Fold:
Amino acid sequence: MMSGMETWQAINSIRVIREFADRPLAAEHVERILNAGRRAGSSKNEQRWAFIVIRDREHLEELAEVGRYAGHLAGAAVAVALISPEPSTTSHTWDMGRAAQNMVLAAWELGVGSVPATVYDHELAHRLLGLPSDRRCDYLLSFGYPADPSQLSAPNRSGGRLALADLIHEERW
Amino acid sequence: MMSGMETWQAINSIRVIREFADRPLAAEHVERILNAGRRAGSSKNEQRWAFIVIRDREHLEELAEVGRYAGHLAGAAVAVALISPEPSTTSHTWDMGRAAQNMVLAAWELGVGSVPATVYDHELAHRLLGLPSDRRCDYLLSFGYPADPSQLSAPNRSGGRLALADLIHEERW
Structure:
């Protein structure tokens, strides 16, 4: 169940999964995903993050309304809401991005798909997550086994990413 | 040279490396690190990032002045400056954090250490990197083979991270 995947293979093969199988995640898979987030580096090792784990179907369906593209939350086996201090700084957002990437890669190695949701309606997210006034949620991650397991081994779509030559500058812009 | 490391092992064993061996990175290692950044997901697949690769020692030494804790850049084999649009949004920063984590994990699998530098002096960074007015740099990453190779297999320091129970909430805050 914990069969491994080399790091580069995970980085290179991961794809966004928006449709999930209708079964819960194994407890050890959830734990590993959360630990992957926990293990991420953070600015000055401040670890100013918290993770809210959501599994209740009704709660997930409510959370699917927080953003224009957040509908996938309704079908997730588990969602993780990434909680920052309010006000949030660039370094909080950067740290959260790093933690999220750890989580989605650790998930992918276990055959668990994921996709991020951006919060548009902060008031709704705040209420649904029961956040205190000094905390905010900009992103949630949906996790689940893919509805279509062939997605786990599908080749990268060509054209999905810019070529390296279009992104790289040497020494200066 | 491209010997693999399972994804979870990389996530769980990576540590910050601030002192680097005085030798250049293999070209294929640099290429893989950059490709790992390129492969990261980005909000709406906009890929609004660019990477500036810096290897010139004098340039690295100059860049070591951009932040209070950026001194490690002076000794890096390669630095990668992460370039966002200006003005930068939360989603640009989040995307950059995800790309950075891909890079540092891909590096770690190859025996390459890394550490991020936060830009404090934006005017200096802007000038040293030759950025146009519609681009900014909030972070650079230093890469290199560790000066002390035993760091690649050193155990995690206990106490370095909060326990999972201190970070996790179930359903609501």
Summary: Chain A touches chain B through 73 residues (CB under 8 Å). Chain A is about 30% helix and 20% strand. The beta strands of chain A are 50-54, 78-85, 113-118, 135-144, 168-170.
